[in-house]
Amino acid sequence: MRKIVLCKIIHIFENTPYDLLVLCTVFSDFEDDQDKKVETLMVPSKRQEALPLHQEAKQESGSGKKKASSKKQKTENVFVDEPLIHATTYIPLMDNADSSPVVDKREVVDLLKPDQVEGIQKSGTKKLKTETDKENAEVKFKDFLLSLKTMMFSEDEALCVVDLLKEKSGVIQDALKKSSKGELTTLIHQLQEKDKLLAAVKEDAAATKDRCKQLTQEMMTEKERSNVVITRMKDRIGTLEKEHNVFQNKIHVSYQETQQMQMKFQQVREQMEAEIAHLKQENGILRDAVSNTTNQLESKQSAELNKLRQDYARLVNELTEKTGKLQQEEVQKKNAEQAATQLKVQLQEAERRWEEVQSYIRKRTAEHEAAQQDLQSKFVAKENEVQSLHSKLTDTLVSKQQLEQRLMQLMESEQKRVNKEESLQMQVQDILEQNEALKAQIQQFHSQIAAQTSASVLAEELHKVIAEKDKQIKQTEDSLASERDHLTSKEEELKDIQNMNFLLKAEVQKLQALANEQAAAAHELEKMQQSVYVKDDKIRLLEEQLQHEISNKMEEFKILSDQNKALKSEVQKLQTLVSEQPNKDVVEQMEKCIQEKDEKLKTVEELLETGLIQVATKEEELNAIRTENSSLTKEVQDLKAKQNDQVSFASLVEELKKVIHEKDGKIKSVEELLEAELLKVANKEKTVQDLKQEIKALKEEIGNVQLEKAQQLSVTSKVQELQNLLKGKEEQMNTMKAVLEEKEKDLANTGKWLQDLQEENESLKAHVQEVAQHNLKEASSASQFEELEIVLKEKENELKRLEAMLKERESDLSSKTKLLQDVQDENKLFKSQIEQLKQQNYQQASSFPPHEELLKVISEREKEISGLWNELDSLKDAVEHQRKKNNDLREKNWEAMEALASTEKMLQDKVNKTSKERQQQVEAVELEAKEVLKKLFPKVSVPSNLSYSEWLHGFEKKAKECMAGTSGSEEIKVLEHKLKEADEMHTLLQLECEKYKSVLAETEGILQKLQRSVEQEENKWKVKVDESHKTIKQMQSSFTSSEQELERLRSENKDIENLRREREHLEMELEKAEMERSTYVTEVRELKDLLTELQKKLDDSYSEAVRQNEELNLLKAQLNETLTKLRTEQNERQKVAGDLHKAQQSLELIQSKIVKAAGDTTVIENSDVSPETESSKKETMSVSLNQTVTQLQQLLQAVNQQLTKEKEHYQVLE
């Protein structure tokens, strides 16, 4: 076969050197590709004979290979520069090309081989026959090339073919030698690159396959889902239509039934209202009786309280008069307190009397405590009584509840006795007549009871009335038993049933009225709670006021303590003066100081007393308010617990509570008065003890002063030194103050100076900025760029915020869709409930004709439902449309962000380039200027390490020195020219900055437009959201209306059922009526017991008032006894005053002796001639005199203490 091919080669290429070149290239390709044993190579043919080969290859690889082969040919022609007749590889890219490329290539080769052999044979025969046909020769040559390319040659065979080709054409040898070397390497590189491209293309093809598969699967799932949803919606629509039709029929039937039942209810309500009105009249009569009794009790108690208040006011006036007299006597005592040295015995007696008074006070306090305990025990007893009353009231309420339960049971019994209503109606009529007669008798008895006063007569009459009622009930029962057999007509049964239905409706209306009353009571409770909160606020305000007043009192106390310290300092000053003045003056000054201090202490005591009284009053007010608050809270709780159990005894309970609260308030006021008096006593005792301690301290200081007379010289010197030190310290303080004032002035001046400097600095900065504007425009452009970057960042943040807003809106839309779904679910529930109601009422719907109004309502509801469905569809479409808009906006925002980022990068690059260029230009200009200046002034030398400005400054100085007044006009012109050039450069730079600014302004305008568009869309969305809210509200309102209608239907069904039950239980009512009458009897007995308990309580309160009057009389007697004791003590004080006068005279004599002895000692000290014995005697005399003075002072202290104790005793008594 290969020999035949070689022969053909020799015959074909006799006259064509170009064909030989082509064959050489083919054989060179074979030699390079010996390692690759399988390769499919294709050459585009222009003739029709090459088409069957392609078609056969494509049938095996699949129909999708056409596009892939064409695409691959395009890619290879783009990437690689090949000769004109180079082979192209066939690479499958579609889903069917799953096998490896090597297998495909082999299949193609196997398919092409027999075709090639046939082509070769045909070409040989044609060439022998027709040598002149050039076109056929060209086709044969191409087929021959194809067959050569498909065949596999060994090295020897390839060399043989090449040798033959060389022998045929010697011209091509040089070309082959040249091309065989260079083309081999290039072809190897090209093949490697093609392999790489093949691998990449295969990977892309696999990825695209996977994506296509995924997309097709997703499309199929979505189609299935949409089909399922459509089928479900169709089924729902059909079921809803069926349900709607059934519901219309059932509503029509139920409406007719409800109308009939309403008529029956109205009849029952009227009967029940009549009975309730009679019961209310009876309750009103009982309330009037109880209110009259309570008013009488209150009038008696108020009269007794007025008497007690008058007695209390009279006693208070007597006490004020006595306190005035005692104050006058205390003024006399102050004058007699200065001379009490020789009254030791009388002081002892006074101390004994003081102890007796203390014992008396203790007894009184014990008595007060016992009285308080008695009051507390009584208060506890009253509280127990109140609790018992509350328990009884609760029992009565429980009994009423039982009665109500029994009434309900009677109603149920009436429903059971439907078949026997004929006989029962007659009985009921007889019973009603008897009840009217009984009510008339009861009214007569009530009128008689109002005229009478004693509760016992009332109880007896009520017992008689009850006995008569029992007899009448028995008679009526007998008559009913006899009349039951005669009544058999069914028409009267229907009438009676209608009447009973009207009565039941009346009862229902009454129950509604009671419910409204309970709501009003709840509203009143809320008001009470609000008032309680208001009172709590008032209490808080009072507490704050109290704290403020206490703080003020504490400040006053601090001021008084400061005054006390000042007094002590005055005492120290007096001690210094004692050393300089004689003893008489010292004693007189000390006495004056003591008197002033006593007066100040008294004022302090009075202020403290007033403050304590105010605090006590405020505390009492607070306690009262707290007690009121606690009582109100308890009342509110009780009212909450008893809202459902409001009965006719509410007024009675409230009046009893008022009486109890008034008594409690009175008891608390008495207790608070006692507590305030005890607090006053304790505070006064404390103040007295403090004052005693201070007086003792002062007296000890006086004794120390008298003992220090012997060391007067040393003390005076020390005092003078201390005074000098104090003066020096005062001077230092004054100097320090002056220095501080000067420093403050200096600080003010420095502040002004700093302000001036700041102003100058600002002016200099402005000047510097004006001067350096030309040099710093580059920096300003950079700063402007930074500012623009900041603005862009802000805009980016705003865009992010807008995106967050859009996300929130999307979440809102999702929530609204969820709400719509919930509404649909609720609608389904309602429909299921309606179906249940229809099933219940379907049995009763056959006998009633349809109604036009119901049909209208049902048609309106159908329209509403269809409208709601349409609204839901429109909302869904709007949501989807909005999602699309949101996606578009996001894409636009991302594009805008990318454009901004690109512009930022461009601007940054431009700014960096311009800054670098400017720096280079400035440096070049500076270097040129330096070189020009050096050329102009070669003699001037300046170091190059300096900056340009420093270098110029130094160069100017040296140039001036060199020039010495000469100036060159040409050099100036050159410099001016350079300055102009620099100005032109500066203008160019400014223009570039303005361009950048304009670009940034454009970007800002784009951003603003984006913001406006986003804001407009937000506004549109807001409008749409508002509309959706409105539609949702309308949906909710429509659903609520439907719910109300359903509830109405349910209530009507319940009413129907209740009527049926009432019909069944009518027979049981009469039997339970007898039980009710027995309970009424028990209630009357309980009322009698309550009246007796109230009378007992009145008696107890009256006895308590009598006991309080007795206690007041005892207090009056005790006050008289204390007045007699005070008078006796006044007489004793007058005696003590006379003794004090004598003691003062004796003190004056002793002081004169002391002065004389002191004078003698001074004379002896001046004259050194006196003997030692006389000096010793005089010293002993002076010591003895000093001792006597100290003893007298101690006696004075003791007398003062006793007097102060007596004062305190009188104050306590006051």
TrEMBL record:
> GO CC terms on record?
endoplasmic reticulum
Signal peptide boundaries: none
TM helices/strands, residue ranges: none
The biological processes this protein is annotated with in GO are: microtubule-based movement
* Record key words, sorted: Coiled coil
Q: Where is this region: Disordered?
A: 45-75
Q: What InterPro entries would the database entry show?
A: Kinectin
Q: Name one GO molecular function term.
A: kinesin binding
From which residue to which does any coiled coil extend?
198-225, 262-353, 421-840, 972-1132
Q: What name does this protein carry? A: Kinectin 1
